[in-house]
Design a protein that fits this description.
Blueprint (H helix, E strand, L loop, with lengths): L2 E4 H6 L1 H11 L3 E5 L2 E6 L13 H7 L5 H17 L10
Parallel strand pairs: 1-2
Antiparallel strand pairs: 2-3
Length: 92
C-alpha cells in the first residue's frame, strides 16, 4: 500500500523520496488538502523484485504438466553431459 504524504512534505523531502522510490520500489501518493492528486512510483525500467516477493511471483507462473516436466529434466541432463566445468573456474 502506498504511503500518503502532503505536497508540502514531499517538497521538503523530495530527494530522499526519489531515492526510496528508485531503490526500494516504494510508492508515494501526494495529497493536497487531504485529497490524492498524484503518485510517485518506479518506472518500468527501475522496478526491482525483492527476494521476499519471489514466492508469490512463482506461484503465479503456470505449472508444467508431467510430460513437459519430464522433457525439461531430460534437456537439463543432456546439457549437463555436454557442458564441462573448466579446471579453473576463475579463469576468464
Amino acid at each position: 500500500m502506498p504511503k500518503s504524504l502532503s505536497v508540502t512534505e514531499v517538497v521538503r523531502h523530495f530527494s530522499e523520496l526519489i531515492s526510496r522510490v528508485r531503490f526500494y520500489g516504494e510508492r508515494v501518493v501526494l495529497t493536497k488538502g487531504g485529497k490524492p492528486v498524484a503518485e510517485l512510483r518506479p518506472t518500468l525500467e527501475t522496478t526491482r523484485v525483492r527476494a521476499g516477493d519471489l514466492p508469490a511471483l512463482f506461484a503465479q507462473l503456470p505449472h508444467l504438466g508431467q510430460e513437459e516436466a519430464t522433457r525439461f529434466a531430460e534437456d537439463l541432463d543432456a546439457a549437463r553431459r555436454i557442458l564441462t566445468t573448466p579446471a579453473d573456474r576463475w579463469a576468464s
